[in-house]
Amino acid sequence: MTKTDFYESDPFTPQKGRLIASIGSDYRFQKGDEVYFDDEPGRLKVRVIDVRVHIKGGGDIHREVLVLKL
């Protein structure tokens, strides 16, 4: 499982904003994917705009997924 953090982003500049959720997943998130968070108030729907992969010295992989609210 790869640790994956979802961050709300600005629509014009892909910068990390509010952390929405952290999960462990092997799914390959890519630009354009739509993701639903049912634990947010009122079911939050977002679209992936950027995926950043970080590989640490020991081989651990961590992803940051930047999303826009829909």
State the share of residues found in helices, binned by percent: under 10%
User: Number of DSSP helices?
Assistant: 0
Shape descriptor? globular
Q: How many angstroms separate the termini? A: 27 Å
Question: Which strand order do you get reading across the main beta sheet?
Answer: 2-1-5-4-3
Query: Taking all residues together, what is the mean pLDDT?
Result: 92
Strand content: over 45%
The number of domains: 1
Number of strands: 5
Sequence of secondary-structure elements? EEEEE
- Regions with pLDDT < 50 over 5+ consecutive residues? none
- What characterizes the major β-sheet? 5 strands, mixed
The radius of gyration computed from the alpha-carbon positions, rounded to a whole number of angstroms, is 12 Å
Structural class: mainly beta
